[in-house]
Amino acid sequence: MTEEIIIAGFGGQGVLSMGKILAYSGVMQDQEVAWFPSYGPEMRGGTANVTVILSDERISSPILNEYDTAIILNQQSMTKFESRVKVGGTLIYDPNGIVKHPSRKDINILRVEGSKLAIEMGNPLTFNMIVLGAFLKAKPVIKLENVKKGLEKSLPERHHKLIPLNLAAIDKGQENLEVVQTV
Amino acid sequence: MGELRLMKGNEVIAIAAIRCGGDAYFGYPITPQSEVMETLMAERPWEDTGMVVLQAESEIASINMVYGAAGCGKRVMTSSSSPGISLMAEGISYMAGSELPCVIVNVQRGGPGLGTIQPSQADYNQATKGGGHGDYSLLVLAPASVQEMHDFVVLGFELAFKYRNPVMILADGVIGQLMEKVKLIDQRPRWTNEQIAEISGSWITVGKSKNRKKHVITSLEMDSSIMEGNNLRLQEKYNRMKAEEVRFEAIECDDAEYILVAFGSAARICQKTVQIARKKGVKVGLIRPITLFPFPEKIISEYATKVKGFLSVEFNAGQMVNDIRLAVNGKTRVEYFGRMGGIIPPPDEVEVALHQKLIKG
Known about the structure:
By secondary structure, chain A is α/β, with parallel strands linked by helices.
């Protein structure tokens, strides 16, 4: 199994840390992992994306042109990455702020109202974990118990009290994944 | 034994320097390798192993601090990125001339000049052909994974002391920023003064005792006949490295009709290119030089009689391609493909280049 994922959105949305938690979870599952970020010089507000590769084998290139799954969190990223999902691959997006919805017919398209649900949960910072939950529902490449271990490993100890909230957010995402189209 | 962690290439450079018993790090921050010193500062090794970590006032100061510490037989490291390495060039030449061991990490970015903060491999010639003045060579290691960033710090110190020569780890922004699984060595103790005396007692300057000859560490020699002798000794040492230290990886070369040659992050990308091309029935392999000096010319020369051509893939204007051409010596075709200025081509783009430049061309 090799799963090549791009997570793309604004800096500050938790794109890189979502990727990191996914990568840590892969390590907990004894997989080979690669996490490669791409971002501008800004701390917040610029575009940020991260490639995460999970595999049972040695990972070759961390730089990719096509992905099995694209997790898209803003319009710029939709414009840039919709065309770069492999035929038969999966695109997951948060419709918040999206003006041009995906139109390809040869990929699976799913959505999750991450921003809206995060506000409902009373903490906008749960956004990225809601999206991660939705991804894991669509592509159960990592067991949830390993995601929990990944969270424990990637969050500094002083933030461990936030783990239950993060796990609740993952559940929320799993429950609210909407299928737009399957191929 | 063998703690498993998920870390960035830059971070692991710092951890490996501490764990292998490093005595000192002197550096000056520059993107894309600032995490090296950030990690060292966060780890506070001076409280634990006694390792010194110091942000110098400049790269020039850093490399001269490295010179001083190395002269005492200490295991000392610095790191920088391309423009910073240029500033260090004088000090590096002096260290090579004075035969001082150290590890220098260059996490390359695009140049020339201040260039860009994005990844590049445009310092290949600087690393392998000098960079500073004079007839000298560094032993140059090119990591292609986070694990190798770790392993080459450990290996780098071993080789630096084996040959009394600066070792350069020539990484790039991709490997520096990439996060992967890495198995860390257990903490090793720093050398005691007794161990240092045993290993390097014949040349270090740590205070002269009454009964021994004075040790002088210098690259200066006004008598040309002696200076030529010094040069010949250095050349003999570089030849010994060529005989003993060549490292490379050959992937799917056995039945290959075409061979890609790439180091560092370019080699990772080319591994995927090999997979893509083989799925389409093109018999292509990959030679990944791990030591850039000494260059793995023998293996390339051997394959030169077996394949229809080599494609050198490097993120510069074509630098390593010249070393491949020397090794091939006209026996088959050697072409180059690369991108510059911080652009990193995905594997598919390399595959297209393979067709255009070598197969159809």
